[in-house]
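User: Structure please.
Assistant: Input sequence and predicted structure:
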Amino acid sequence: MKVKLQVDIRKLIERNDLKTLKLLLQDQEPGTVFEMIEELEASEKIVVFRLLPKDLAAEVFAQLEPDEQLEIINLLKSDPVLKEIVNNMEPDDRAELLDELPASLVTTLLEMLSPQEREETLQILNYPENSAGRVMSPRFIYLKENMTIDKALEKIRKFGKRAETIYTLYVVDDSRKLLGFVDLEDILYAEPKTLIKDIANYNPIFVYTTDDQEEVAGIMRRHDLLVIPVIDRDERLVGIITIDDVVDIIDEEATEDIQKMAGLNVTYTSYFHTSTFTFFIKRIPWLAALLLLESLNSFVVSHFEMLIATIPILAAFMTSMVDAGGNTGSQISALVIRGMALGEIKLRDFWRVFIKESFQGILLGAFLGIILLARGFLITHNILVNLAAAVSLTVVILYANILGVILPFMAKFFKIDPAVMAGPIITTVVDVTGMLIYFSIAKIIIGI
């Protein structure tokens, strides 16, 4: 269905049947229009943007990838359509767009904005990146305590269309300090002369403009909120964050964590909108660093060269040792990092997690060690070699499980994203140290 609609749009453009195309597009949801034009060329997208109602055009434009937005801006630089699109974008979407553009284009677009839109955009851009202030909307309705219900409804009717949401309204004092909130439902059912203070809830959950966006998403998830107020250091209400913003934050943070866990510098553009060279730059630093770290194995092997030369069969267990250790470390680090991301595991929980996973490591190591001991007799009947391999694996599993706990907590303590410590990092560290543990224990047990 999606492809058919895209092909139809292209044919309508080719036939210059723009009247039909306009009728087809004007009642569609932004997400539907985006899917319909996703595969069109930039020049064809421009035709569609000229036909869309200005509010719809702004919402669709905000969903495009940064490189697509840049291409369309360059093509529409002197076109009034661009001015309409930019002025009708949500302030947070507009700020995100300006963040991605060259300075010369930012200046051009800012000049196209009305004074009010420019002020809202610059206000958002002044907040730190990835903070609540960067993703909030300054378009909200606030009410005063002594306002009557009929006056409140009058204000909602007057400003509601421009507001991000009208379902939750915030109560402030004369200096716009946040006091509480009231639901639209309560306003609708209240008597016209009832005062807002009589139906308001005076225990609002809020965030500060400088709070991290991931923390904001966590708060809204835990409290099942559809909207949350944002206040400044003076506790004045300056914006709101809605559930659609939180969905974007969760998507962005999940992408970031997955890429970091894979040993990849973060890229926020989609796969087909990211160049091969960009991926190369993002991937090569980690791959090169891990290669150099992994090469330390050669020093470990050379140190135990005499032991391996005397009992070559020891080499048969090397891969089992490093693979099992790396897998164990990756498992527990993923569990700990996920727990941290959901707020289930805090820094203060270190010793609880450490003790629990130490015990878990002993159980896992002992069980896998017994399996390796039994399997070892399929390779060699040398009891000491098999025993050395089994004991070594038990110790490596315990060590890897503990390391998978320590590294994320260390990252959290030093304010580094714990996701960095997963996957390739822990696997490589366990590979190198696991070999050292294996040969050291084998040397002691065999007595060489």
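The chain has a mean pLDDT of 89.
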